[in-house]
Specification:
142 residues, alpha+beta, Jelly Rolls, four-stranded antiparallel sheet, 5 helices, 38% helix, 27% strand, globular
Length: 142
């Protein structure tokens, strides 16, 4: 079931990297993204594959796994898939829908357009990546 514009904009605004945007800017983000529904169990990305999209969870939960082990469960307002799109390297983790999910998906071109258009988002995403990479490597000194 598709989300109404106001509801979608509210969900987008809850995302930490979009929270500072105006309604007009959020509407621009909404137009760049595709809303999809996926069933529980659907693999959204595989560790080691080349990333071509970024995901923002509108509803549901997604397990993030590395080396065959769940390292995190994410929910509404959280995002994933950004590391591979920024680094243009293979994905550092996989992701599978734990429950039925509603997601906003930005393809490679749209994701980079978003970062170019809103430089503050770039910094927020880079900070988020740094924190997540730190969590992925618990034995490393930081």
């Amino acid at each position: 079931m598709a989300t109404g514009t106001d509801e979608k904009l509210e969900l987008l605004k809850r995302s930490p990297f979009l929270a500072g945007l105006t309604r007009r800017e959020l509407e621009q983000v909404e137009h760049l993204a595709d809303e999809i529904d996926v069933p529980a169990g659907r693999v959204l990305m595989r560790e080691g594959s080349i990333g071509s999209e970024f995901f923002l969870i509108l509803d549901g939960q997604v397990n993030i796994d590395r080396g065959g082990r769940t390292i995190r469960t994410m929910g509404p307002g959280e995002f994933f898939g950004d590391i591979a799109l920024i680094t243009e390297r293979p994905r550092s983790a996989g992701g599978t829908a734990l429950t039925d999910c509603r997601l906003l998906v930005l393809g490679h071109r749209e994701f980079h357009s978003l970062l170019d258009k809103f430089p503050a988002i770039r910094m927020t995403i880079l900070e988020s990546i740094a924190l997540r990479l730190r969590d992925l490597e618990p034995d490393s000194a930081h």
